[in-house]
Amino acid sequence: MLLRIIASVAVSGALVRASTGTTYSFKTVSGCSTASASTGTVPMSLPTSSTSSTVSTIITNAEVTVPSTSRVTVDPVTTTVLTQTAYEWTVTTTTIATSTSWQGAESIVATATWPVTVCTNGVTPTTVTEYSGDYTPTPGQVTKLPTPFPSQVLCTTGITWLTYLLPTVTSGLTTVTVTPTSTVNAPTTTSTVTYSYTSTAFGTTVTSVTTSYRLHTSIATTSTACEATTTTTFAAKCAPTNVIAGISDDKGSHGLVSGKYASNITVIYIPDEKYNDPSLCCQLCQDNEGCGGLYAGISGFCGLLYVGAPNGGAACDFTFTYQTQSDVFPGQGLWVQSGCGEIDYTGSDGV
After folding, report:
1. Residue 328, SS3?
2. Predicted pLDDT at 7
3. Which residue from 42, 46, 122, 333 has the fewest beta carbons nearer than 10 Å?
4. Sheet holding 342-348, edge to edge
5. Residue 237: strand, helix, or coil
6. DSSP-derived secondary structure letter, 225
7. In the chain, which stretches have pLDDT less than 50?
8. Count of beta carbons in the 10 Å neighbourhood of residue 276
9. Do the strands 126-132 and 229-235 form a parallel or antiparallel pair, or are they unpaired?
C-alpha cells in the first residue's frame, strides 16, 4: 500500500458521515524464454534482454457501514500483590581432564604466475597457436558443440497498478467502557526460586594445529619490441575442442557443473581477462608447476586449482570431480581440464 487518501462528507441533521479511502498496490508477472541459433559462436553466458509493460486498474469495494465510538472511563480497580520472590544460585563444577588449544598455521602451496607482454613498439601481434603431444578425449566428451544452441534469454515483465476505492459510512453510536487498573505491592509471604549453573575446570591443555592452505600470485612482465606475428605452443589437451565443455550419453549432450573437491584444495582466480578463454586458462595451468586442474567459463573466469601436500607444496593427485546437468547446454557451464593432477567425471547430477 503506497498511499491512502480519505475524503469526508457530513450529512446535516444526523450522526452520519461518509468517507472513501484509497489504497494502491501493484502486482508483477514475469516470464522468460530462450532463443536458439544455428550459426555463430556459442555464448558461454547467455545474454538477456528485458521488456516491460504497465496497465492501471480501479477497483471499487462494497460500501461498509460502521458505528461511531464513544469512550467512557469508570473508577479504577486496584490489585494488591501479597507474595514476593527471592532468588538463589547454586554452582556445580565439572572438571575435564584434557582440553585442546587450537593454533592456526599457514602453508603456501605454490605461486601461480601469469605472463604479461608489453610491446614497446606499439605493435599488436597476431598469435599463431600450435599444439604438441596427444590427447585422448574422455568417454562421451563433446568435441563439437551441437546445433541449434541457446543464444539469448528473452524476458518480459507485466506490471498492473491497482487502485482500490474503499467507501465507508459512519452511522449510529457504540459505547466503549475503559477501566483503569493499578497494582499495590504489600507482601506478606516470600517465594524462593533457585537457579543452578555449571562451571567447567580443565586439567591439562594440549595444543593442536590446523593448517590453512594458501597460494601466492605473481605477474611476469616482459617488455619487448614485438613482431607482427608470434607463434606459441600449447599442450594438445588445451586445444579449444579438447577442453572439456560437455558430455554426451544416451540422454543427450549436456553441460558441466562442479562436483566434489580434494581435501586441502585451494584455487586462484586469474584477474587478467584474456585468461577467461578456456584454452588460454588451460595452458596457464600447464605452465604453472603443481596446478592440478582448472575450470573456466560461465560468466567469464579462469580458476587454477592446487592440492596442498601434507608436508608442504602442491600434490599432483586427485583434484576435483565434475558432472553433467540436463538444463545446462555444452559450452555454457564449466569448461574443465586436468593439469598435473586428476579430474574425474562422475555422471549426471540427476537434474
Report:
1. coil
2. 37
3. 122
4. 247-249, 252-261, 318-325, 342-348
5. helix
6. P
7. 1-14
8. 17
9. parallel
Q: Is there a contact between 177 and 72 (Cβ–Cβ < 8 Å)?
A: yes
Please provide residue 211's backbone torsions phi and psi, each rounded to the nearest 5 degrees.
Answer: -105, 130
* Cell of residue 33, nine digits: 524464454
Cα angle, residue 309 at apex, residues 215 and 288 outer, rounded to 5°: 45
Distances (CA, A) of 351 to 251, 255, 257, 328, 348: 12, 12, 11, 10, 8
**DSSP H or E run through 281:** helix 278-287
Please give the grid coordinates belonging to residue 2. Answer: 503506497
At 318, list the grid cell.
586427485
- Tell how strand 16-37 and strand 5-11 pair up: antiparallel
pLDDT computed for residue 11 by the predictor? 38
Say how far apart CA 244 and CA 343 lie, in whole Å. Answer: 11
- Element (H or E) spanning 189, and its range? strand 181-224
- Whether the predicted model's global pTM rises above the 0.85 cut: no
